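Action item from last meeting closed. Structure (391 res):
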């Protein structure tokens, strides 16, 4: 009874379009929201637009990270996006094909896949386009599936197979440019992995999220997951794996998802273009709350799985202060990690809070200024200063 009262107090506080279903006393990490039971209020970000459309299209959904109430994102809240909408896949006739440079081409039904050795993977990722001010294109889940290499070993890949292309069942019209000519063609969504990565123990072919079958949003019936990699690498509605000798040059591999960066080397600017693959070291403050006379800044860390040394928070340009990392999320290499910073003595008025993460190799999350020579908006892992109004 008492818990119910507190829960509705919270519900009243977290109004204004926030989805609060599921918020309660249970499942909320103690360390993150220590004063929840005493009535905790969300402190509004003044840098966040108040007219955000969280579901901008039937097949697109942003995750309001201010509402996080546990380590795993419920599957009906998982962020989602893709390029060609949702293909219709009939699970009874579904086949995953393995073709190309293999001794034994395969055509596996969903049942056959599920009969293979299953493995669990805790993996959170963001879309490489996730960025300020919303940061709504990331989520975290417990996935179940088959190790990719066990499927590839069944097909017995040939020695000259150097590249593995993962095709979704989705397709759409694309313009392919060549020396001033533009050709309109229909293309299938595809991403590739080099041989070493495809045959490594990490990638899985997942058919369940948080213990339930994938929804069409997350790639029903089967998707590739490459732990530590950006969203685009995790091919949904997986239809075919094609082993080949040549590099794959499809649009979403070789052209659209790439980053152009300038770097000064010996006083000379060197420009490099790289494909979007492993996640860059990143943190951001997801919400600020007030409980009694102190404030809490709660946030998220994502990277490629390199262990994290520390997360620090700076207020109004002051010294970096260590935040606390949530042990449950720290235990899982490819989970997103939670941090919390207790801010005492906040004065009325507007304040700027920013976090930065440092990994065990001493790599520090860059500032926006340090990324000034990154010319595409993808892979924006810059520190995100957030403004709050304290009343
Ligand atoms: N088949 C297919 N898989 C795809 C895409 C796509 O367009 N088609 N989009 C990718 C991109 S850009 C992202 S960010 C993730 C999003 O995964 P989610 O919807 O499960 O969050 O799916 C990836 N996998
Ligand atoms: Mo993406």
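Sequence:
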């Amino acid at each position: 009874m008492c818990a119910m009262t507190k829960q509705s107090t919270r519900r009243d506080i977290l109004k204004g379009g926030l989805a609060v279903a599921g918020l309660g006393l249970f499942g909320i990490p103690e360390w993150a929201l220590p004063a929840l039971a005493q009535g905790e209020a969300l402190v509004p970000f003044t840098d966040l637009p108040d007219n955000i459309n969280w579901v901008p299209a039937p097949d697109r959904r942003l995750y309001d990270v201010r509402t996080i109430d546990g380590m795993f994102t419920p599957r009906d809240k998982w962020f989602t996006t893709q390029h060609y909408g949702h293909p219709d896949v009939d699970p009874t006739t579904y086949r995953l094909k393995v073709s190309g440079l293999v001794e034994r081409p395969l055509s596996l039904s969903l049942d056959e896949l599920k009969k293979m050795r299953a493995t669990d993977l805790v993996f959170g990722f963001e879309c490489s386009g996730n960025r300020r001010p919303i940061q709504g294109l990331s989520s975290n889940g417990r996935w179940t599936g088959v190790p990719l290499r066990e499927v590839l070993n069944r097909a017995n890949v040939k020695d000259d197979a150097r590249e593995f292309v993962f095709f979704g069942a989705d397709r759409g019209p694309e313009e392919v440019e060549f020396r001033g000519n533009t050709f309109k063609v229909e293309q299938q969504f595809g991403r590739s992995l080099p041989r070493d990565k495809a045959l490594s123990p990490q990638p899985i072919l997942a058919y369940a999220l948080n213990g339930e079958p994938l929804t069409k949003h997350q790639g029903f019936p089967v998707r590739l997951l490459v732990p530590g990699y950006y969203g685009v690498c995790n091919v949904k509605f997986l239809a075919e794996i094609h082993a080949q000798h040549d590099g794959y040059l499809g649009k979403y591999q070789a052209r659209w998802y790439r980053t152009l960066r300038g770097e000064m080397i010996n006083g000379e600017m060197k420009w490099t273009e790289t494909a979007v693959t492993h996640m860059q070291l990143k943190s951001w403050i997801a919400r600020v709350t007030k409980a009694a006379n102190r404030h809490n800044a709660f946030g998220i860390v994502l990277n490629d799985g390199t262990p994290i040394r520390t997360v620090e928070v700076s207020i109004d340009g002051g010294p970096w202060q260590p935040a606390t990392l949530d042990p449950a999320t720290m235990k899982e290499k490819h989970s997103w990690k939670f941090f919390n910073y207790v801010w005492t003595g906040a004065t009325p008025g507007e304040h700027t809070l920013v976090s930065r993460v440092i990994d065990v190799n001493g790599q520090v999350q860059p500032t926006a200024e340090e990324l000034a020579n990154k010319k595409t908006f993808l892979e924006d892992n810059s520190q995100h200063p957030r403004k709050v109004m304290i009343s």
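Note appended to the action item: The radius of gyration is 22 Å.
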